[in-house]
Design a protein that fits this description.
Blueprint: E1 3-6, E2 8-11, E3 14-22, H1 39-59, H2 65-77, H3 81-92, H4 97-113, H5 118-122, H6 124-139, E4 153-157, H7 162-166, E5 173-178, H8 186-194, E6 198-200, H9 205-208, E7 214-218, E8 223-226, H10 230-253, E9 258-259, E10 265-272, H11 275-283, E11 289-293, H12 295-299, H13 307-320, E12 325-329, H14 357-362, H15 364-377, E13 382-387, H16 393-412, E14 423-427, H17 430-434, H18 436-439, E15 445-448, H19 450-458, H20 476-491, E16 495-498, H21 509-515, E17 519-522, H22 527-535, H23 539-550, H24 555-567
Parallel strand pairs: 3-4, 4-5, 5-6, 10-11, 10-17, 11-12, 12-13, 13-14, 14-15, 15-16, 16-17
Antiparallel strand pairs: 1-8, 2-6, 3-7, 7-8, 9-10
Helix pairs in contact: 1-2, 1-3, 1-6, 3-4, 4-6, 13-15, 15-16, 21-23
């Protein structure tokens, strides 16, 4: 009898294959008190384990920039002063090295998992991974590997670590099913990069599946089928084939512009966090970047990145886009987004705390360094600046004053840059949506950040599972805010894009087109689909549909109508 489990869709698609159950022996640290005379010996063991693992990572051959970035980040974590100090302090207190390491990693993981930011919470797995690998080295045990794999393998596990996937047989894996993890987990990111379906957060899937079981991942519904009956199996094999054919159809037209049948051109850009994301986005048909999340340059580093380090990345991105738009968001970090090399103050409500521009104003040298790097990169393409978390005209004026000072410095240094570089703001707070008519006079464009805008407008913490059903961008208050912001920009002869998750929701594309949205900035894999919908929807059809949606009264009615339209497309 078919067993059905549900989970979080981390990477879209349908997969039909055989379960490859991946589990590793859970090593237990040796627990014993050591004598004072053994302390230096235990510290030496720790130092050697760090050195051995760092050398292993250095020599590891991987085939993607994303994995190279993970390896670089892990090597940086091996030099984390907090980790080194904590372990050595415990050894000084007469703990043996294995126990000291295990306790230290446990403390660090607990601190990270207590953060509110979903991305940062997922970074706890990186420290678990490091702790696990160091313990294997200390015990002299060889860990199990994901290579080679049988053809059409769906990996089922409690959790995959970055080092697991770095040596994975990518030719034969067609999907992931995990007990743990969320949409921003390492496993999810790898699945998205490979273009294979992944379903995570399933809690007990690794205990429910046997090695070699036939399983189906249906990420249209977020379901996993174990030992499906023959009729269901054949049905999903046909579905998987149809999806493959649809992808091949979309790939044929992915490089064409997104122009409606009645002539409105809409930009479909890609959201990126690094150059690998950009490469993948270009491969999927994106010609521009609507959001470069620069915080990853800071979070995956061991120090505040220098002007030169940032310039090298931004200028490479501009060159890769060959004259097309590159929108770089200034540093959006702080509060619940921590850095390993900088101590932030503890805050009761970090989402409303010291973050984004607020940090940049207080740490103006860091802000100016980034602005210099962005301005220098503007000599290599159509680079624009995007400011996060804006709530007033005063903030924009202050940024413009700082920007003018930075420009004067570059002029003195005789450095080339675009003197007329465009500046836009993220509309992601109720304040920015309410006073959009004032803000637009001081900037060149808007970009709507729907993730934060939704949680702030609805007063719903998007990371709180107890109230997750209340978090919906289809809520009428959010939709009205979006439409009004777009209309205000158009009244002033300017444009509005959207870089939040809602832009990549294909079911919302027709409605957003009707609202008049000028640019959709989405994850790379979503680019062809969003383009296709725009090319097959007239502006009039979109407007009629969006008007119909806004005449409905409840979020449930709106979501039901959206689903009906999607099924009947």
């Amino acid at each position: 009898m078919t067993k059905i489990m549900t989970g979080v869709v981390a990477s879209e698609g349908i997969a039909v294959g055989k379960a490859f159950l991946f589990y590793k022996e859970k090593l237990q640290p040796k627990v014993e008190k050591i004598e004072d005379g053994e302390i230096e010996e235990e510290k030496a063991k720790f130092t050697k384990a760090l050195s051995d693992y760092s050398k292993y990572l250095e020599e590891l051959e991987v085939d993607s920039l994303a994995q190279k970035n993970v390896i670089q980040a892990h090597r940086g974590m091996l030099e984390d002063p907090f980790l080194l100090e904590t372990v050595n302090n415990k050894i000084d207190s007469n703990q043996n090295v294995e126990k000291a390491l295990d306790d230290s990693i446990g403390e660090m993981v607990s601190m990270i998992e207590a953060l509110d930011d979903p991305y940062l919470k997922e970074r706890a797995v990186d420290y678990k991974d490091i702790g696990e690998k160091l313990l294997y080295i200390l015990k002299g045990v060889e860990p199990k590997k994901l290579s080679p794999l049988p053809k059409d393998s769906i990996i089922v596990s409690n959790e995959l670590t970055p080092s697991d996937t770095s040596v994975m047989d990518k030719e034969n894996v067609i999907g992931f099913a995990m007990d743990l993890g969320g949409k921003t987990a390492h496993t999810s990111i790898i699945a998205q990069t490979l273009g294979i379906p992944a379903i995570v957060g399933m809690k007990t899937v690794s205990q429910s599946v046997k090695d070699g079981d036939t399983i189906i991942i249906d990420n249209e519904q977020g379901k996993l089928f174990i030992d499906p009956e023959e009729e269901l199996l054949q049905e999903y094999r046909k579905k998987a084939l149809r999806l493959k054919e649809e992808k091949e159809r979309l790939d044929k037209f992915k490089d064409e512009d997104a122009i409606t049948p009645d002539g409105k051109k809409v930009e479909v850009a890609v959201n990126i966090g690094n150059l690998e994301d950009l490469k993948k986005g270009i491969e999927r048909g994106a010609k521009s970047v609507g959001l470069f999340r620069t915080e990853f340059l800071y979070m995956e580093n061991t120090h505040f990145p220098t002007e030169e380090e940032q310039f090298n990345v931004y200028s490479q991105a501009a060159k890769m886009l060959d004259g097309n738009t590159l929108i770089i968001r200034t540093l959006d970090i702080g509060g619940d987004k921590s850095l390993s090399y900088f101590k932030f103050p503890e805050e009761e409500n970090p989402f409303l705390g010291w973050r984004a521009l607020r940090i940049c104003f207080d740490m103006q040298d860091v802000f100016e360094t980034q602005l210099k790097a962005i301005l220098r990169a503007s000599a290599f393409g159509d680079v624009k600046i995007l400011l996060p978390m804006v709530i007033s005209v005063d903030e924009i004026i202050r940024v413009m004053d700082i920007l003018e000072g930075v420009k004067k410095d570059l002029i003195k240094r005789e450095v080339e840059f675009n003197h007329e570089i465009e500046v836009g703001i993220m509309v992601e707070t109720p304040a920015s949506a309410i006073i959009a008519d004032d803000l637009i006079d001081h900037v060149d464009f808007f970009s709507i950040g729907t993730n934060d805008l939704t949680q702030y407008v609805l007063a719903v913490d998007r990371g709180n599972e107890k109230i997750s059903e209340l978090y919906s961008t289809y809520n009428k208050a959010v939709l009205r805010s979006i439409k009004r912001v777009i209309e205000i920009s158009h009244e002033k002869g300017k444009w509005t894009g959207m870089c939040g998750g809602f832009a990549g929701d294909a079911k919302a594309t027709k409605m957003l087109l009707g609202f008049g949205l000028d640019e959709f900035s989405v994850p790379g894999p979503n680019v062809p689909k969003i383009k296709d919908i725009i090319r097959n929807t007239t502006l009039e059809e979109g407007q009629n549909f969006s008007n119909e949606i806004l005449n409905l009264k409840t979020t449930g009615d709106i979501e039901t109508r959206i689903e009906e339209e999607w099924k009947n497309r």
